[in-house]
Amino acid sequence: MRDRMTAFVGRGSGWRRLTAAFMALGLATSPAAAQTGVVGGTVVDARTLRGLDGAQVQVEGTTIGAQTDGSGAFRITGVSGTQVTLQVRRLGFKPATVTARVGQTDVRVTLSEQVASLSEVVITGTAEPVEKRAIGNSVTKVDAATIQAIAPASDMTTLLNGKAAGVVMTGGSGAVGSGPRIRIRGAASLSLNDQPLIYVDGVRIANDVSTGPRSQFFSSGVISRLNDIDPENIESIEVIKGPAAATLYGTEANNGVIQIITKRGKAGRSVFTMNVREGGSWFQNAEERIGQTYRRLADGTISAWNPVAINREAGLDLFKTGLSQSYNMALNGGTDVVKYNFNGSYDNDKGIEPTNSLWRWSGGGNVSLSPYKNLDIQAVFNTNQSVVNVPLEAGGGAWFSLYFGQTPVTDAEKLRRGYFSAPPEAFWGAFKQWQAVKRTTGSIQMNHRLGTWLNQRLVVGNDLTGEDNVNQTERMGPFYRQFFTNPVDQNGNKETRRRELSVTSIDYAASLKKALFGMQTSTSFGAQYFRRQTYAVRARGESFPSAGLSLVDAAATTFGGEDFFENATVGFYGQEQVNLNDRMYLTAALRVDNNSAFGEDFSWVTYPKVSGTWVINEEPWFKLGWINSLKLRAAYGQTGQQPDVNTALRTYSATTGGDGNPAVSPLSLGNPDLKPERAGEIELGFDGTFLSERVSAEVTWYRRDTKDGILFQDVPPSSGFAGQRVVNIGGIRSTGIELQTRYNALNMRNLNLDFGFNISNNDNQITSLGNTANLAKDPLGNPFIQIGGNRNTIGKAVMTWYDFKVRSATYNPATRRAENMKCDDGLGKGGVVDCLTAAGQPNAPRVFVGRADPSVEGSFNTTVTAFQKWRFYGLVDFKGGHRVLNNNDRARCQVFNQCLANIEPEKYDPVFVAQAQSNGILREFTYQKAKFARLREVSASYTMGQDMARWVGARSGALTLSGRNLALWTPYGGTDPENFFTLQQFVRLEQAQVPPLAQVLFSVSLSY
Fold it and tell me: Which is nearest to 162 in space by CA: 140, 178, 179, 177?
């Protein structure tokens, strides 16, 4: 076997020879196989049929045993007799016993996972992982490796979506290479960044969203740095949801923390795995979801126009079937002294239009050294290179043109085949936009122990990302010039934005354990330093003298700019935990921080934390047998969030003086008294298992109060500065409840049935807008700040939809217009006022329409495993309680007059006609309920038997057919309730965007 495997991976490149060397090393350290007295086999998870590493397999009545390797395989030598009983144990699984013949090497042991375990360890920011029984707050752990075995995900978005209560993923665009915004427990700020901190193996990394070239035509990109991480290299993900849990992370953790733990080496023989995925994606029900536009022709007939139908009638498909390809290889193994895991992936995906594609190569390595019993050293290295070509959508480009085209009448319209400004192939050929990325994350972690009383950890790491964001239009030939008449486009232009982003982390932590007055105490302390540096350079060229030129310097007119930003945080914490009989834990902590965004005058800020847990079922007097475990918990903690770099500082811009010499002019007044936003959260809940550990439940109630919220305030002209500055005047209160449960309904040898469900509700209300004397007031006297169709007002959610609401209208057949329009008077008693003045300007007040963000989200999943070979899985996720601005309807009905209500107003409700004819002033009809349920994931998998696996030279393998986004249930009238402009932090507006694509993948997974 060794010779055959070495030949398989060693032929060809140097990389393969290195791989073979590692495999040979791992095999060489394995015990020599004996011809007799041997028992071997595999330990697998009953639900996923995935091999379980680290399981202890022991011959009953002896000290002989072995531990399973990275693929779940074990081999025990020196066994006597003809038959033995094997005892198998692994943390998080129920023990199992099986009988085997001596000499049998294909024993298959199936372990049933415990639905929950208080002995499971999670990361809390201290020197070592902590058992869940000792943690007073909710920490959701996502078993990424198991998810990849059930329904392989191509990126972090699909891996995490629907897996953790309270974590809302909003994708914005379904284009290949796009990424989501993540919001944990709703809005925590009125104006600042809403993204959680992201850590990989203890190192903070960049978490930017809406990056890349302008692809949504409002200077908005759709790419998220989160999707740079290869899901095949992730072991687990831990979500720390709020201040009660994130206090130790300090002045940047107000939005929560996501910890990503990559795969580590396992002691035992080298295990080589290979995963191949191929499939396709498509725009499901495209003709129906894009909708139609209408036009009255010269003969009086009304003609409907739909781009999908028009192309199909011409024998063409408007959208193609996208291609998904992914290839992954990994090597895992080692000894008690050296363990290693190496991982490499190649992805090549094509979207549903020619301008959308992704090419990515990812590689990672994790090497752990244990030169002494009290010292572990871990080196982690991850790198990727990618190129994402993004489509032009939303505010311009092919998507805008196909959404708002109409039946052609004029020669120019016929030339465009009815499309609004140009046919799709003109956009696809004339405009290109892409992001090229090179990213490297590396870290060294040292763990040192002195006996059982002291643990120390030092992590030093850096995340370095280089982005090239390009929008390019080559000099146009005659075909393109007939559609695009802007000389800047016709003569060609190119804009390149180069951004280099470096995030450096230094993290030291220590924990001391000691018995005191009959109690176990743990004293933890630590210090952290984080620095983020951003270097940006921009170059733009316009007017290329001839076709084929693409460099900025080849253009007739060039522009450029350069910038640099740096932000640093330094913090210290101390924590004391008291353990009473391993049943009751009390914890108190204090974090102190400083951040460079506040300037020299800012003093240190402190964040306290206190929590307690009680494993009540372990008390001697607890007699409820149907409760197997029950932990009660409570926690309170504080965190903060700093504003953007240089916000507190007074700044000036360069200009040319009256004498022609360089000078400066006032730019920003700054605010030297600026403080971080500060959030305090109380959290109450319980974790339990019930009914012989077949049911688990985790329930959490929380209330978070954000104070010193940062808002913009007008600058007095007497200061010599214009515009606005940021001040600490806002406040938000968020409350919610989260439920995560699992039910193992059947656990038989040939049938396992498992259900999972999570749901969360979040409600946030603004509690303060500072001095409201100069703010506008609604008819009830409530002060507010209006931003477009969104309003911040005390007592309502952040950036709630507020607009004019038409209550009644009449239709005049003579003028074919709506008249006597009456709108809600805003007093809440059913009263009305005239909607518009005689000059056609708004006369009524804006009133509450609905929330922009979901107040309810969750998911339901089920897994069926049959005959220890077949596995079937499905997940439905849902969101609700919010409204999305359907700007497709607004543009069609109010801007381009392409709705039937514009053409045949007599057939429609006058209230709707009044809005359609209002030139966009009255648009309450566009704020549409956006609740939905989506069949997010479904899969069927077959686990190969040994004979079938050997046929392809493997030890084990699986075949999986999976699908994503195959069904949608929603009352929303637009294309998709998940679409919006990803640059918009609070606004949820859909307009001509790529929806989440339906996808089917076939996967092959082999282990050698």
Answer: 140
